[in-house]
Specification:
Blueprint: H1 2-10, H2 16-24, H3 31-45, H4 52-60, H5 67-87
Helix pairs in contact: 3-4
Length: 104
């Protein structure tokens, strides 16, 4: 999760407070980013079968060109997670500041 968070912070320019909210399971203060996060969660939970209402909410938030990007991002994250779990990839020093530990 450290590398994903680092990339979101630095390369994708997602605000750190939004990344932290996602990591910690809290609401994102930016309503547009919250809509995107909610839709992404719906896509994962529904195994790619979101309701028409969920799609309409995403489109209404201005993400019309981004639906396929959500699918791609889910696929890349799953592939990365599976590979890292299998080969026990160590966290690079550059990502150490974004290491996440599940709340007890």
């Amino acid at each position: 999760m450290a590398a994903h968070s680092f990339v979101a912070d630095k390369m994708s320019k997602v605000p750190t407070d939004a990344t932290d909210a996602i990591r910690d399971g809290h609401a994102i203060s930016d309503s547009r980013l919250q809509t995107l996060a909610t839709f992404t969660h719906v896509m994962v939970e529904s195994r790619g079968r979101p309701s028409e209402g969920a799609v309409r909410k995403l489109l209404a938030a201005g993400y019309s060109e981004n639906i396929l990007g959500v699918i791609l991002s889910i696929g890349v994250k799953n592939w990365s997670n599976y590979a890292n779990h299998l080969i026990h990839t160590p966290i690079d020093d550059v990502f150490a500041s974004r290491v996440w530990k599940e709340a007890a």
